[in-house]
Amino acid sequence: LVPRARASGPLRSRRRTRAGARGGPRRRSSDAGGGSDSEFALGEAGDKDSARGRAGRVEFVHDFRAPLVPMPNPSVVLATAGYDHTVRFWEATRGICYRTLQYADSQVNKLEITPDKRYLAAAGNPHIRLFEVNTSNPQPVASYDGHNGNVTAVGFEKEGRWMYSGSDDGTVKIWDVRAGGHQREYESRGAVTTAALHPNGTELISGDENGNIRVWDLTAGACSCELVPDVGVAIRSVAIANDGSLVVAANSAGVCYVWKLQRGAKTTAHFEPLRKLQAHDAYVLKCLLSPDGRLLATASSDKTVKLWNLDGFTLERVLKGHQRWVWDCVFSVDAAYLVTASSDASARLWDCASGEAIRIYSGHHKAAVCCALNDSAVDA
Q1: Fewer CB in a 10 Å sphere around the end CB: N or C, the chain?
Q2: By the 8 A CB rule, do 103 and 124 touch?
Q3: Higher model confidence: residue 361 or residue 56?
């Protein structure tokens, strides 16, 4: 299949955008089942919410304080990973895998690319490894150790100076990418399944297995707000609009809760309920707002991805083709395309306008449960 011609071409670099964070469901630490779909594992809950500053352990192979050798930035970085212990880089438009990294310690739960496209964070159990993107070096340049369970969320602030993570050990951590160690730790009362950074850069929103959504004030070092939309129903994914105007949380009952926030506000203390959307009749494993603020994507264990128009929350497209659970998705910067990752061991590139799969990325031997895409322009 060949993508239809567009004025600027598919997945072209167009403008610089803020890096979004991606959260996801908690996964088992073993590879039993070879990537089969199964119920989510339950974890021990923490005792209380608290914030503590504590040094974490980071092993560096590369000295971030030393001058870095200049390297060209690829226009499009697309990576997938999962239960076959590999991370694969793809030529997005051709569907060819051009580089494979081994992740021997565990499955890979989440991927995130730094805003400058130089590094890829791969979150497993219980480590986070940082790899160089545009190099043949197969080894991680840094390892972030401090979690005691599966890392279920990872992301970077807009300049890439610090990183956040969430884990089923019940904590959210903030890491200094260059200096090493986690500078702050937040304890939740349940296994953290998802986390996303607010565009204001000072607040982090997390969800957990017990159905709690918490806003962490990174300046005050404390939980500033707590929501429980459906007691006991696990939150699987949280998404925040690029302009900070909307927050969406998806749960195991297939429901997406949408709240309206005040644009440009320094804090998100007030959540105004906007919509309760029964998006699927099965787990929603990922929800994501498009960069242009027009669409909501919901990926589900029912093997489909749905595209919802935020103007009225009408169903615009149902993306069908995956044979098993769809765990993750990511929009292109212009919101024209969507990449998905599935337990059927493949990833797909979809045209959002037509709902057609125009590329299939095949190469994983077990479930592909996460994907990362950065096709935005990078300032010189």
Answers
A1: C
A2: yes
A3: 361
